[in-house]
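Handout, tutorial session.
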Amino acid sequence: MHQPITLEQYLGPYRDHPQMRSAVLLDNARQIIERVNELCSLAEADGVELEDNPMTGTAISGNGNGGARPSDTTVGAILSAHKDLRGLDRHDPRRLLARWALTYGIDHSQRLNLYHEHPQWTRSWLHSQWGAPGDGLTSWTVWFVPYADLVKNPPTCAALTELATAGISPYPFVELKGKRP
């Protein structure tokens, strides 16, 4: 059963960083945690088996940078939602949560104001953030490509068959279900 992500887990190795004392950022963190926990609970209710990350001992992906990241860290993009504590990488090595989110979770994601990186850029996690992604990114409803420069940042993994269910184009992008990137 899914163990809800806590604020302490989300802050991870950065819990003592001065930036993590900001009331605004801590409110952002609480909101992303609450929203992702709710999405995970809904997925579990539909039979999705969620796993914890053996590297972090939590549901957060990576080795300590899948949750909060201070603005002065070199990990991730400069404008990453992780750096204003609105982004979270949920450990998903079998990609079961991503598959569920593509097939059944779009309405839930819209209601929760959650946006997710296109699964071809997230090989073992589901990146979620509350609030729409920045300009210049290709997006479909609640799914987006995390980079504007796809030559410099090509996909890191194969397309999931569930992309078609969500009306999302696999890379290289083509028209699918009447939608254009």
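The second record follows below. Compare its token runs with those of the first.
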Amino acid sequence: MTALAAAGYRLERGKICGVGGLRMLHLIFSSGTRRYSLFISPHFGPVETMRTTAFGAERIAAFETGHYRGLVVSERPAVECAELAHAAQKRL
């Protein structure tokens, strides 16, 4: 799971969570001063374009790879959240 970390981040912890009725692996990465979460579940549907939305102070970038569905959640600006999601998407 360490290989999923964006440059400058390390895996802090992981657990299984429920998101929208789906069981997802929840990984929390930290740079020491910043944090983001990556949620992953199996997904065998078509690959869709990444979507970034805001939910309160958090940004959420959702993506599919054809094998996995992923969500990156961060308090960073939408552009940075999308960059973290692209990094994870490439590694999945």
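Points raised in discussion: The chain has a mean pLDDT of 91.
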